[in-house]
Amino acid sequence: MAALIEEDLKHCLEGVTVSRLMGPNEANFAGNVHGGNILKLMEEAGCILATRYYNVAGKKNLPNYQPGMAALVRVERTDFLQPMYIGEVAELHTELTFTSAHSIEVLITVFAEDCIKGQKRLTNRARLWYVSMSSDEKVLPIPPLPNTKKIEQGKIRYEKQKKERAAHRHTRIERVPSILQEELDPQTVGYSQTTLRHLVGVVDTNSAGYVMGGVIMKLMDECAGLVAVKHCKTNVVTASMDATNFHQKVKKGSLVTLTGFITFTSPKSIEIEVVVDAEFLRSGSAQKERAVSSFFTFVSLDSNHRPMPVPQIMPVTEEELERHKAAEERYLERKRQREQESTS
């Protein structure tokens, strides 16, 4: 039995590879695979590895081991480096990179493979953070990774995300902007603001009855995509998703309401905020909880799949102007970070 556990642990440390052929139901009218589908695949792959590691290593190293299921709590900023198309194979590689007392960091790298041409290219890379939950919804202790080579870098990333999550948790929850009936100008925020509603069913949840983080991210990307295409009226693709924190578990049977609206436009990109509120319908209360929110960046593509200028948004209300100013600062910070990464 001990030898079997050792072998299973060895396999965990080698990571997990997931492959899936991209079909028409996963792409837009131009053949680009939706960013949300990639995000969902990434979360599924990360969940497999995090759940497997906790249970295999936990049986060996935890004296009071309880079975657990990985739950997504944070996704670091994710850039979509290149588009993926119908007919290509999404190949996801996962790697355990750090464990804290109660969390697991998983690095996920995504490639698009053209099996006919024999070509493969990098499309995404992101770090996802998970906790392990017991059947009675307790956060479980995580066994430390053996022989971690880059533990100091991992500690730095852990403390950074911990600080950011704490800061985000204490910021006030922004209300969803209301649409004014007179806002019919296509360049206003209200024109393209979009609301989606989704009733969480069995297919959306894990074995504990809570919605998978990847399902929520897929819906968020869909909502943001609708905002972008309504504003640009062209082929639009996801360029990035900012670091995203998951604050509330969403139960099976909940109604999730997603609202997306433009916060900023640069000459060739659009920032869209998507907020997700969850209402558990069987609770007897109409109270909603903010489950998650994030900022997506989209670009508009011409017929040759090259970025093209986007219509500029015109903030009207004081609230829209405040959001626009904050979004411009985020845009400049992202630009600065990209320039630093390109020179490092």
TrEMBL record:
The keyword Hydrolase applies. GO terms for molecular function: long-chain fatty acyl-CoA hydrolase activity. The active site is at residues 28, 221. This is Cytosolic acyl coenzyme A thioester hydrolase isoform X2. Keywords: Hydrolase. GO terms for cellular component: cytosol. GO terms for biological process: acyl-CoA metabolic process; fatty acid catabolic process. The keyword Hydrolase applies. The lineage of its organism: Eukaryota, Metazoa, Spiralia, Lophotrochozoa, Brachiopoda. PANTHER family: ACYL COENZYME A THIOESTER HYDROLASE (PTHR11049), CYTOSOLIC ACYL COENZYME A THIOESTER HYDROLASE (PTHR11049:SF24). Transmembrane segments: none annotated. It holds the Pfam family 4HBT. Residues 12-136, 190-304 form the HotDog ACOT-type domain. It comes from Lingula anatina (Brachiopod).
